Amino acid sequence: MDNQKVEKKHLTGTQVRERIAFALGNLGHSAFYGALSTYFIVYVTSGMFNDVSPKVANRLIALITTLVVIIRLAEVVVDPILGNIVDNTKTRWGKFKPWQVIGSVVSSILLVVVFSGVFGLAKVNWLLFAICFVIIFVILDIFYSFADVSYWGMVPAISGDSKERGVFTALGSFTGSIGWNGLTMIVVPITTYFTYLATGKHEQGTQGWLAFAIIVGAISIVSALAVALGTTEKHDVIREAASKKKSIKDVFVGIIKNDQILWISLAYLMYSLAYVVTNGVLFYLFKFVIGKPNEFWIAGAVATVVGFSTAPLYPILNKYITRKILFLIGQISMILSYIIFIFGSSNMTLVVLGLVLFNFTFAQLVIVLSLTDSIEYGQLKNGNRNEAVVLAVRPMLDKITGAFSNGIVGSIAIMAGMTGSATAADITAKNVHMFKIFAFYSPLAFSILALIVFMFKVNITEKKHAEIVEELEKKLARGEISVTDDSETIINDGMDTTVLAPVNGDLVTLDAVPTGFKGKGFAIQPTEGNIYAPFDGQIKFTFSTRHTLGIVSETGLEVIIHVGLETVNMRGEGFITHYNDGQNVKAGELLLTFDQALVREAGYDDIVIIFFTQPGRIEELNKVTGKQVRHGDVVQNVSLSKNTK
Asked: Average pLDDT, whole number, for the chain?
């Protein structure tokens, strides 16, 4: 059995359901963000104040634009606090799913309220309108952030491996592109159709915009329910080792001390400024520069088709191309698109080509995954894991870019005369030049800066993340972190746990393992690829790479079984588990099979390492002597104490 082969494990029904459910979540979530960050200002500039004089309307547009910018920028400091609230939430449904549902329901209801013009209050009292708008928009933004943080926070909760996280992130981005770009295709037809039903006029009136908001809100709520009902938060050793509550001070210190979060955030800020600002003004490009507003759906169609092509390609390409190279390819495409927009914006064929290049980017996928991997980096560096807090950074940056986008769109509308009933015939060459400065020249500079920062300052690569995970495992072996919270660990003082050999092979001491697993335990050079339970106990976690699992005995002994050296780099290929996390197992029960030949072909040692994560609690431990063992043979008797030495 030395060259035993293991059949490739197919996805189970549960795994397929979970991936579909997670993907559906971003369909509504991205549609909501698009409605709020892009089309709300379009509604404000083109429909909200149609029933008042142009002079008053421009003042109110400027007021709303300014308020939105101020509110969204002011709330930036709130997002890490919201992330901390999510991190510290404990319910039977997990910590992410409740906020996903609550955040989506509340923000969707308030989205409808703001798209109603706060029920037309501006026509009655503009000052009261401004006060009510601020209050409503702040609450809306806060609950949207809860939904956003909890959605992307599910990624590290679902999986601890970069490859698997890449699959979930790619799926979310794939459906997110449908949600975001789908709005571009349906916004004009929906707003026009429902306005016609209400007034008999073929135009984008307030009734159409209200219907648009109701539809988006409903989709957002249904998508949130899909995530809540279809996904499960997993528990692994690294998450459990960082389960204690954090203070607000810990939150900000953890972010500030994590240099990779800061550099990744800066790169994303530059990229997002370019992307969101340009998306925010594309409607004006079609309506006022090209003069074909009814063909605006083309922008959404192109973005959707490109998204359909690129998002599913990401996990495939990432097998052969590193994240940095994929980011480089995407940013170069974006830079070329701006050159086309600047010099060929009046030619529809060139505009379509520019839209293809503009949307051919892996930037968001790469940034989200890099931020996700920086969680383990931060935990290793300063002891702070803060899953939801770290992932709150991205929506926090989205708010900054969304605020600037709202401000720029509103400013362009006023300065270039693109408000109310204006048409392309009313726009001068000077207006078009002003438009291009904000829409294309400035974002071009931002996209170049994003590329420079990411390529030269971000070093969380797939290889680096694997090294970090390995080091965290070594800390487990040294007893520096534990599988379970001490307050929740039940230890039967003085009772022995008989630890059986989990695999056939040659028994060696843990000290003989060359890669730094210095602690208490033993290792076996296997002669086959079957791993069995070393005692009666409960499976506490499995790395999504499936090369490492944790099991706790009935007496409270915590044991890690780690297959191979550096096998984390195999990303689960060749490893098959035969249990569920949290399952109670009996001694000798088959837990895991692995392909020895595949491990060795990949250049890794397949030694099986068994170590105890509570070295300070171990009172007695008989010495291990080199010999051949079969699974089920007694290797060590371990006696634990409730008190740490």
From this structure: 80
